[in-house]
Amino acid sequence: MTTTIFLTIAVIVLIFVVIFQIAKASEYVSVIKGENESRKQNNKINGFLMLSFMVVGLIGVWYCNDLLYPKTLLVHPAASNHGERVDSMLWVTLWVTGIVFVATQILLFWFAYKYQEKEGAKVFYFPHNNFIEALWTVVPAIVLAVLVIIGLRNWYSFTGDAPEGAMQVEVTGKQFGWIFRYPGKDEKLGKKYFKVIDNATNPLGLIWSDDAALGLKDDKDTHDDIVVEQTMYLVKGKPVRLIIGSRDVIHDVGLPHFRLKMDAVPGIPTTMWFTPTMTTEEMRKETGNPNFEYELSCDQMCGNGHYSMKGTVKVVTQAEFDAWKATKSPAYYAAFPDKAPAKPTVPDSTGTGKAKDTAKAIAKN
Amino acid sequence: MSNEAVLHGVASSHDAHGDHHHEHHHHETFISKYVFSMDHKMIAKQFLITGMVWAVIGGLMSVLFRLQLGYPDQSFPWLEDLLGKWWAEKGHITAQGYYALVTTHGTVLVFFVLTAGLSGTFANFLIPLQVGARDMASPFMNMLSYWFFFAASIVMLSSIFVETGPFSGGWTAYPPLSALGDASPGSKTGMDLWLVAMALFVVSSLLGGLNYIATILNMRTKGMSMTRLPLTIWALFFTAVLGVLSFPVLLSGFILLIFDRNFGTSFYLSDIFVNGVGALPNEGGSAILFQHLFWFLGHPEVYIILLPAMGMVSEILSVNARKPIFGYMAMIGSLFAIAILAFLVWAHHMFVTGLNPFLGSIFVLLTLLIAVPSAIKVFNWLTTLWRGNIRFTPAMMFAIGFVSLFISGGLTGIWLGNSALDIHLHDTYFVIAHFHIVMGVASMFGMFAGVYHWYPKMYGRYLNNTLGYIHFWITMIGAYLIFWPMHYEGLAGMPRRYYDYSIWESFKNFVELNRFISTVAMIVFAVQILFLLNFFYSIWKGRKVTSQNPWGSNTLEWTAPIHPGHGNWPGEIPEVHRWAYDYGKDGREFIPQTEAVGADESHH
Predict the structure, then answer these.
(1) CB of A266 within 8 Å of any CB in chain B?
(2) Strands, E, within B456-501: which ranges?
(3) Model-level pTM?
(4) Tell me, what's the ipTM?
(5) Which of B36, B41, B48, B378, by CA, is between 20 and 30 Å from B25?
């Protein structure tokens, strides 16, 4: 191994020396030839290279797109209602900026090539022209105004209130994982306080007993809250409102397939809502990848384990969701087993067998 | 002209100074000439060379973490021999090493290379020479500015060697991560040193900035009205104003952070439970407050980096196209607009922090507004080239490269500045691609253009041209090859600052691309070393400059002797009669600023 290293270094040094010697020699040659002569030659070569760079570069842009576009998210539909609007806005922006990109790059390199130094050429003394300057102030301003309008319309709909009847899930980031909380039958998330966090039994610090020292009163709303780690279940077609927080440092709930993200800030809850439009299963078929998962990535530097802070989002049908939820018992009962109601030995009567099967199927996933 | 008397007074008192320096020229010791120098030209070289050292360190760090990203499965035992276990265990860069590398790379490149190394160098070198002054308003403060930077460098460098490693929470240093040593080992001693280094750096840049402003406003030579200044000076002026107004805010943010870290306050801390430690007593702070304070500098900082490059590029394009810069007043106006807007867009870095959506929408509007002055600049540069007579000096090549990169990177700013797209692309590789192209590489190109263009003035010798062309082409092609494909990684949702993507079903299919990017990055880094060899070799062995004005340029620095002493001009300071851009006027190739306007000269 070490020999290859030394060999590599030797080769690199050798290349450097060769380049350096060539460069030095060309300097001597140019001195002998005369500064003017060598400048003209350099000019010609570099003018040509400028033009070549543009042509090859634009072909390269095409080639790169050909190669990498299939790997982007854009080849498959976005998995949320907001995501569809993000994508369509992205295409509009791409067209606008793309046209400007191609036009200005072509002009830049074409001018460089076309107006390279020529013997006796007279330059055009052209210090200013108010009309065209005003023109290229106003036109970009109008185009940008259009983009701003599109953007803000989307922005307000993304950040506006979630529709009535949206389900609520609380998402909490911690170094380095995710905790999700679902309200129980009361549809209410009970209060929590970070000083009663207990990693083993109460990772969110739910207030489920009185504490005179901290001035806390038992909040009955917490008693039926369901707490799960790492995997969040959502329902296709049902709006969901995420209430996002963090237990320690700033994290970020990144949902690339839904085209959304929102920071998780300790002490300051944030929210985000969307409606998933495709189940995990449907997306597996769409992408042709049987291992596909909606992954929840932490997108805000949160420490040395940042890269491994992964959560999973399972988008399922309402029936599958209900079945999954039925398998979960409130965190309160796990912490206080004595308070748990007697094990419901006979499950409720609404098509239990089917629900159980679905639950098993989901568990397998 | 009401201030002519003042100007004249200043100029003549400086004449006296100049004479004084010349008398004692031979008594200068090594220490006073090369170390604690008060000559702006020497201080400029000190900034430049220190910046180069940091560029090598920062660049090498990027090569190391690209090694991890490109070859995550491969073991490089020599890395452990070289760096030790903490950084590279069993031949793999460790996660803590990786985060230390990316953080230090960012901090160093943004502040030490592209702020101190770029504007420190060229503000020092060009302001007195181009406005026609003997030196800065306060040469002593100027010297202090460098030495504070040097002290900051030493402290930052030392942080790399502490046991818990340098700060590793990203260059933006968001608390609570940066405030809690228990949350990340890098936030222990490494962060203390980082804060001290940055505080020293702020002092350095304030001392420098005040000096630049004072010099530009008060010490212009006779006839040098503000609208006759070369655009380099205008750009450096706005840069200094931005720095002076925004760095103190950053420092205040740091001071609150120091309090939170060491004195139990809760400015940024609330509701925190750290694994292995338990709940912290802090309540009521706002982690977002720091982000406001940080980005109030952080965004102007982008323009602190970019404006000097824009100014130099404007000058170099005009000189080498042998044609006046198109729309001089529009160029100043757009610089001014950018400088104002720079203060009003900071929260576009915070769209997804839970910021009030209405506030966010205001920042969308103001952010996209910046595209207008930027567009004006691009079109004006293009028109400057149009029907010119272009000489492709290496400086000119880099200037053209700058325009190309500025377009490419600037356009993606329109994507990210629109909050409804940012909500998807925020903190992905798309962002990396955007800011590296528009701020990192483009400003580097501005800096290279400046070095190649003013090297003859700095050292009285030329850089080797052939090496210059090789340097340009490989860097230009390499920069696009590295950063262009990253847009696609961003569009795949790939988050930045990830040590390893292999556990992610969504992001793991870019292995070959990452390897390709890493390979190109190494080649480009090697070519920068070639540039440094050229730089240092040419100081002593380069082709000698034989004419006072080798580029046929109008500005004042080329009226000074080839080896200007302290005081710049041996006799009287030259007087200025016209703007800096009379190229190709009335059939004459160039008309220096010192030449009186002829009776039959045409008006423009």
Answers:
(1) yes
(2) none
(3) 0.93
(4) 0.92
(5) B48
